[in-house]
Structures are given as structure tokens and as C-alpha cells.
Amino acid sequence: MYLFEHRIPAYNVQQQELWKMRHSKQSHCPEWDDRRSWDQRKHSSSRKRRKRSHSSGQESKHYKPNHVSESHYLDDRAINERDHHDRRYVEEYRNDFCEVYDHRHYHRDYEKSHHHHYSKSSGRSRKSSHKRKHKRHHCSSHQSHSKSHRRKRSRSVEDDEEGHLICESGDVLRARYEIVATLGEGAFGKVVECIDHDMRGMHVAVKIVKNVGRYREAARSEIQVLEHLNTMDPSSTFRCVQMLEWFDHHGHVCIVFELLGLSTYDFIKENSFLPFHINDIRNMAYQICQSINFLHHNKLTHTDLKPENILFVESDYIVKYNAKMKRDERTLKNTDIKVVDFGSATFDDEHHSTLVSTRHYRAPEVILALGWSQPCDVWSIGCILIEYYLGFTVFQTHDSKEHLAMMERILGPLPAHMIKKSRKHYFHHDQLDWDEHSSAGRYVRRRCKPLKEFMHCQDTDHQSLFDLVRRMLEYDPAKRITLDEALQHPFFEPLKK
Questions:
Q1: Where are the domains of the chain?
Q2: Which of 325, 201, 317, 213 is nearest to 268 (CA)?
Q3: DSSP bridge pairs for 305
Q4: Which of 75, 435, 440, 455 is most buried, by the most CB atoms less than 10 A from its CB?
Q5: pLDDT per residue over 223-277, tens digit each?
Q6: Domain 262-495's class?
Q7: Is there a common fold for 159-258 and 262-495?
Q8: Binding site annotation covers 207?
Q9: Which residues are catalytic?
Q10: Is 111 exposed, middle or buried (0-12, 13-18, 19+ CB in 10 A)?
């Protein structure tokens, strides 16, 4: 029996206190200089990658990527605040380090400019990914964007005019964390890779939040969620990224994370958008379902699942020449993953924002403003799995009505009861108000087709995967497969032998 080998613990007294803090009008956290330490974590240091051969005559080679994804350090959007004023600042915290990538039609967004991706090796940069590839930027005053405008707080600690900590490679935080590189920078602050000298040189990622009140408050909500997850699953059995500790550094909230490998999106991108092998999809899908099922059993909804937020623990791979594709192909050596970015995770009894999820993984009930809960995560997982299978997302759009048209093209008509319940003006006479002969209509018809027509072959594994995906992409959230049920699906039977 693979499902929940370890019993999910009930809420304890400490967790109830966290709950009170999270739901109070003025969230109270312990003093910011109170150290929150955890047991020693697995060492996941980055390694240099050898130059790849493009020759068909070369034997398979093993590679260890020299970059790690910091999506989970930067993409931590704060929990919904109670009043509009606070929420506006939280949105700034959520939108940090916004980057966009366009690979043919492969473009992602987050509604109302909420798209955000923060992986160093991500293709979302406006710069060429080739130019940025494997580049490590050292933390310096150059990156503050404000060389001449600094707020001096003490003789040894300075901020730029925006509140970023000015730091350099070799600087030490809390007499423990030596900065070796900058992984990313955004509106909220910056993320640096550090050597933890108290843990025998283990490499970690430290998120340094701006010394600005609104960002400190947003970081509190993030920390409370991360502490909750650490309390409920201290050994990370259910594969949620671990916060190792947090501390205050001269007014800057600093959150220490374990260092992980590439995101699943980055791996696909760096593999020329070739899809994952079906056995790898099976392994990753099972872990994702276990992880998110753990959240659901603990009254949490992630709300922002996407390939960028699924990270490999290690990104080592083997390169083989694919004669059919006439190019090198990367195959993972280890498919262990962790789920990241819990900044927008929402408890069942909290305020639920109308709009959640990144566009391509957004459930129909969210688009139609019908209310949402845990099933919206299941829809997102279905979208992720089909993307792993194809190498691209099937719902490639920025418009809600076009998104619904794509759904109908792939999955069939929307249920009448959902159409009638929605107050959105997407329908006319209980049908989607959509012109199939328009430019957008032709685009949808050309790009989309019934779900089963995306299958590469008709063998049992492929049919089983598509059956699971179809159940995850059920329009009606009340009828959508639960993750308890998904983990018992025949697609996962080979893992239980």
C-alpha cells in the first residue's frame, strides 16, 4: 500500500497557534530574530556541466547541471490579505521577478500581469536563453539598480533606495551563510545561494526580502504556511519543499530553503521541448498526486500548480543521440521531485480569491467564477501531465473565452448547469458565444483536437494515462476524480508491484 504510508498527524497545539496567527486581523509572528532551526537536510549542491556532444557517433554521456531552479524561492505569492490596501501590496510581492518567454506559441501568462517565473535557467527571460545559459551572477551593488542611491543603516549594512540589501559574494549572513552567487532578484527582494558553514558547507538558497514593511508582512504569511508544512511533515515524506529556517538580518526577513535542481518546465525547455518518457511521467505523477493529496487532507489548496513549480531533487541526466529526431536527447537519471511555491496556498476556511492559478492550468470553475476548492488543483495536475506527455501545453491562450473554446474543442461541451450558474458574459442562449470562423476560431480549431487524438500510440500505458488525465479534466469539480482515487488508478499499478 503506497498511499500515505505515514499517518498524517492531526493539528497540535503549536499548529493551532499558527492558525490563530494566520487568521487574526493583525498576524502576529514571533520576534523576527528568533531562530527557527531544523534538522540537517540533504546536500544538493550544484555541479559543473561538461560540454555536450552533438555528434551521433558519441556514446551516451552523464551530465550534472550546474544550475538550480529557484522558482520556489522567488515565486512565493503571499496569502490573500483581508483588506484591499494590504492585498495590493501582497500582489506586488507575488509578482516579483516577472519574466515572459515565447517559444513559437509557447507563451505563459498569469491573469492581470500576475505571470511570474523566477528560475535562473528558465526561458522566460527577455534575454536569449542561450546567452544566459549556465551563467551565475554574483551578488553585488550592480544588481541593486541603484548604485548612487543607498540608504545607510549602519557602517556595515546598506540598502539601495528600493530596500534591497546590498551584498557581495563573500558576505556572510548571521555569521553562518556565506553568499556565493545570486540566483535571482525581484520586486520582493533577492535570492542568493549560500554555503552553510554550520552544516559542513552545505549549499542552501536564502531569500532576502526587502526592508520594506509591506514585503515583511507578506513574508509572514509565507513563513506561516511553510512552518505549517514543516510541522505536519518534518521529514518531507510528502515532497513539499522545506524551509530550513528564517531569521532577521537588519530588517530583512531571510528565509532559508533547501537547494533543489531544475524545474520540470526548465528540463523540457533545455531538452528542446521533447516530452518525458511515459515511465518518467508515471513516477513524477504519482509523487505529485501524493504531495498534493497531503495538502488536501490538511485542508490546503495549492492553487498554483504548474511545471515550473515541480522541481527535481537532482537534475542529472544522460545524453543519447536520437536518430529519429536527429538530435541529442536528455534522459533523467532520477525522477524524484518536490512541489514548491506555497505562497498562494489557501486553507479551506480562508478567504478564496476569485482568480487563482496560472492561465494554462486554470480550472473552468475558476474561469467561470463559480467558486473553487481542492478540485482546482486536480485540474492543474491533469494539464501538467498532458504537457509532460506532449512537451507543450494544450491550453495556449491569454483570453478566457478562447480558453473555454479550447476546452470544448478538446473535452466537449461545457455542462449546462455550469453555464447557467456563471455570471460571466461568455455565453449566448446557454452556449459559448464563439465564432469558429474568426481568426481566433481558426486558431483554436487548428491547434486543438479531441483529447484522445493527442495520443502517440494505443498501447495500454498510453490509454491508461489518458484515462487518468480525462478524469482529472472533468468539467464539474464535484465529479472530478479526487487524488485519493487517482492514486488507485490503474496507470500507477506498475509502481506497486
A1: 159-258, 262-495
A2: 317
A3: none
A4: 75
A5: 988 999 999 999 999 999 999 999 999 999 999 999 998 899 999 999 999 999 9
A6: mainly alpha
A7: no
A8: yes
A9: 304
A10: middle
